[in-house]
Fold this protein.
Amino acid sequence: KMMSTASVQVSRLRCNGQVRVAGRNEFPPVAPGGPARLSWALTAAPQGKRDLVQVGYELHLVRVDSPLADERSGTPAVTASSCCHEWKRPDCALQWHELQPPDCRKLLPGCWYRWTVAVKDSCGTEASGSSYFYVTDPQALTGVSWIGSHDIRMNELRKEFNVGETVVSAIAVISGLGYYELYINGKNVDPTRKLDPAWTEFDKRVLYATFDVKDFLVVGPNAVGVLLGNGWYSQDQYIPPSVQKPAYGPPRLLLNLTIATASGRTITVVSDESWTGRSGAITFDSVYHGEHVDARLLRPGWAQPGFTDPTSLWLRASIMNDPGGAVEPQAMPPVRVEVTTMKPISVAKVITNTWLFDFGQNFAGWIRLHVRGAPKGASIFVLD
């Protein structure tokens, strides 16, 4: 968020080169001990004076329990145990500040921080802006098991749990190979984020992401669900016969959900053998060969508490082998689907039961298709 007077604005706030977009459940990771390089830009407000130069700044750092709630409120949401830091550089023209040890050693692992920079320009005008980052916890996934199945194509996994009092903070740390989507109480925690985690050599590095999920939880029964895909991990890709196919095994999940309540109690939900899973409506998926969806197997509410499904085979998840790579935070921005919806500029019937949809441009995205009147068991093929 940005605050300014009439002539100058603080914009493009970055942490270690990453810009966090307001409102998104995405926060630049900072390793415990740092460094954390914080930078910003000065821009002239509309009808503001040009050729402005920064002459000094103040930087304030505050720990917050829920950055999404803090951002919505527009005011600090700080607990009594929160630690605050500030640096004053009244005669500094540099538009960046790097937190180095020992400063970074004061930051707590597994916590979010709001950083606010207040600047003064050469005309004496003051402006400020703020953003957030997350200090990773190297122990968050230590001892947590990868789960999945060698018996069925387990790509829908779920677990129910109870929260007995008001939630103060909730942090989900997750990796799913080859791809995953995280749902809590039936809601995708970040629906614009796709194809996570980023591609790596999984026997060398496996990436995880961290989400603020406080707003998704309720007092009482809750449920967490994860949808898995093959991605580049358990793959069926086009590879020349002379090249060995690098398939690592069935899809698998690694998750730690840590919930802090108003009384100081901590509730931990991890991936283990208490989860159940099934082979869902996506019966085949491949990076190159697309996916097959059997709509008859869709189960609305599968990631909600109280869900029952007597017609599907839900099995206990099994402990799976570790992929072998070091588990690290995903530092690069994720693949995202923008909220823009494109409609075809023309629809032409080519032959019987075959239509051509022309969108007028080249693009990458997800197709939303509504079908009416098709008999049960009918097949629909979408080619691009």
Q: What stands out?
A: The first strand starts at residue 2 and ends at 3. The chain is about 0% helix and 45% strand. The helical segments are 67-73. Residues 1-6, 77-82 have pLDDT under 50 and may be disordered.
